[in-house]
Amino acid sequence: MSGVLTFACGRTDRTEAFFTGETVLEGGRLAPLALPPPEIFPRALKRAEFDVTELSASSYLVHLSRGVSEYVALPVFLSRFFRFDSIYVRADRGIDAPADLRGKVVGTPEFQMTAGVWVRGILQEHFGLDHRSVRYVTGGLNLAGRKERIPLAPGPGQDIRPIDPAETLNALLARGEIDAVVAPEPPACFLDGSAPVRRLFPDSRAAEQAYFAASGIFPIMHLVAVRRSLVDADPTLAGRLFKAFVLARDAGYRRLEAMANAGSLPLMLPWLQVELANTRKALGHDHWPYGFEANRAAIEALCRYSFDQSLSARAVAPEELFDPRVLTT
What we know:
It comes from Ancylobacter aquaticus. By secondary structure, this protein is of the alpha/beta class. It folds into two domains: 4-81 and 219-256 and 288-326, D-Maltodextrin-Binding Protein, domain 2; 84-215, 3-Layer(aba) Sandwich (D-Maltodextrin-Binding Protein, domain 2), CATH 3.40.190.10. The chain contains eleven helices and eleven strands. It has helices at 16-20, 37-47, 57-65, 114-127, 169-175, 188-191, 204-215, 228-233, 237-260, 272-283, 296-308, and strands spanning 4-9, 29-34, 52-56, 71-80, 87-90, 105-108, 135-138, 159-162, 180-182, 197-199, 220-227. It has a six-stranded mixed β-sheet with strand order 8-7-6-9-5-10. Helix 4 (114-127) packs across helix 11 and helix 9 (237-260) crosses helix 10 (272-283). It is globular. The two termini are 22 Å apart.
């Protein structure tokens, strides 16, 4: 028996069943706490406040490589994103392809954030843009004051510098003091049209589908991790948790299908049914897979990118990220 375990996560269709009680943990109880991931991550990484937690995949990998992680992961991936649409460039700098970013100054909220790790890795591996050929500045996107959650130790050839803490990447981009931004959210000057800023990939969906067809990878952003002391004390816990998360994800699938096939639209999206069908045509019926083997290629790529970008202190094997009792999933 596990008793009550605190579980910090964003409330999404993948976790909703824990909040409604539709999915329960066999032999115990998960007490879900709905929190924004930017709040969860520092509380988990610095103080290990939660028994089970959603975590940045990159931050977890860096901590693991440095031997300072109090958590061990499950192959459960609560956030995934291709991120081709997360690259914003000045329209007046002649940046029409990834290679045009060579020698440019690119802003990103944190160099170690998972979205940026994937973007740099994909642009290098699939488009030939060495991440060391780009100068990076870090700081708050639309709000000033953001700092790296994890101290950086830049490697050879890397140029990574924080901006003035009173500045924002959005303001620098709008004034033309930097050439591009890579960020999970859009810069305000892109949304309001106040500066000549556009996406690097005008048809990001087509580019992402081509990338998936070539690689088979749907990039992982966040994973689930458990306090290591808990799984060491209870050898059955990791397996029971994994089973519960699969059931919760499957409940999310069912809700999505019900919404897509409803006679009256539950969301203000007129082509929801077609969208679900097109997603499954491109990515497969199980388009949000859990388990180690189904995600091996993505995990290997993230480990490779993290080490190449001088984030991981050592090369980490994909199997090291997870409790060994769930590696056969």
